[in-house]
Amino acid sequence: MGILIKNTLAVLPQGDGYAAARHDIYVDGTDIAGIDAAPAGFEATSEIDGSNRLAIPGLINAHTHTYMSMMRNVADDLSFTDWLFGTIEPIEDRLEPEDSYWASLLSQIEMIRSGTTCFNDQQMHIGQTTRAVRESGMRAVICRGLVGSAYDESDYRIAEALRERDDFADCDRLTFRLGPHAPYSCGPDYLRLVADVAKREGMGIHIHIAEGQVESDNMWRDHHCTPVEYVRDAGIFDVPTIAAHCIRVSEGDRAILAENGVSVVTNPASNMKLGNGFAPVPEMMAAGINVCLGTDGAASNNAQNMFREMGLVALIHKGTHDTPQCVSATETLAMATRNGAVALGLPTGSIEVGKKADLVLLDLDAPSLTPLNNPVAALAYSANGSEVTDVIIDGREVLRNRELLTIDEARVRHEIARICTRLGLA
Description:
Blueprint: E1 2-14, E2 17-28, E3 31-35, E4 46-49, E5 53-57, E6 59-64, H1 80-93, H2 97-113, E7 116-123, H3 128-136, E8 139-146, H4 156-167, E9 174-180, H5 188-201, E10 204-209, H6 213-223, H7 227-233, E11 241-245, H8 251-259, E12 263-266, H9 268-273, H10 281-286, E13 291-293, H11 298-301, H12 306-321, H13 329-336, H14 338-344, E14 359-363, H15 375-381, E15 388-393, E16 396-400, E17 403-404, H16 409-423
Parallel strand pairs: 1-4, 1-5, 6-7, 7-8, 8-9, 9-10, 10-11, 11-12, 12-13
Antiparallel strand pairs: 1-2, 2-3, 5-14, 14-15, 15-16, 16-17
Helix pairs in contact: 2-3, 2-16, 12-13, 13-15
């Protein structure tokens, strides 16, 4: 199957930044096979007129919980402790496995429609998010949430995670990591077990670290160390690790993260809404940490829109650091694309020959993009996701002229309404 995107304004990598110019993009199978020059033997089965479109690499949501979409707007204006333990966990305890399937599909509808092609998910019901991804056409990294205290090689959650990886090995768009939840929900012996299994199985790790001040205070009171030190000493950083949040991290913590090649996912909307503060993103970047961007779950963010996160991360640090040179539009786009691809170990994140064809087209007639002037700045400061017209993932059109091709949206809305009624959320 070949797709030709003809004469589109495309944002391509140029050194450490980007350059926008008119190009023809050739998609052959699952890959970007040519830019301006057709690959040998190429035959287009679909052609897209890109003359009034802006082509960008698909956005990568590097930390979320897609099963939480039915919990949006039910636990607002609460402290982190009241939000998690008083409201969200009791709802989670009442979820049935298939609820996560429908909720994940709802999240994926929102992500596709706002230009996200890949997400890194920490989930709780085995087989449900993966089933949804297989049907939707999205790309995803699936991480079974893990909690525990003891070193127990018969741990059922870890066994579930490995079984899910094996059961879905036939889907190239799915990869798997282990997801120990956080230092406050996993004891050091359990973290060591997860690290040992990850090393043995050749898997990475996805974990929440230093999300709030209470977590850091309790860690110092109980263990006389920071959350970063606690996780490092348990061996988690011995394997490739993605750490979500990292709000309360000292200069020493940042040095540890950098030395161990840990990628950090900042989640500005969620962190602000829960009153947890601002991650020291400029300082982490200066320390050489690979910083990427995520939404977190809709229970704390209320949205799965990466353009909103891009706008926030590009603005809040300018305000907190009193300098407009802090976190540029170029750095923002990199966080949402190639930095996420590096963190997840995926051949995506940029429009280059040989990369996977995860592409998004935006409408240049949209008021928010008029006048365009600087496309990269427009993506960081002007776009809101409504401009997305077409989405290609792994060489397959999943959104065409704003029509979703892979998910029955009406059915999903019906099922979510049914679930919310059963849970007493509606």
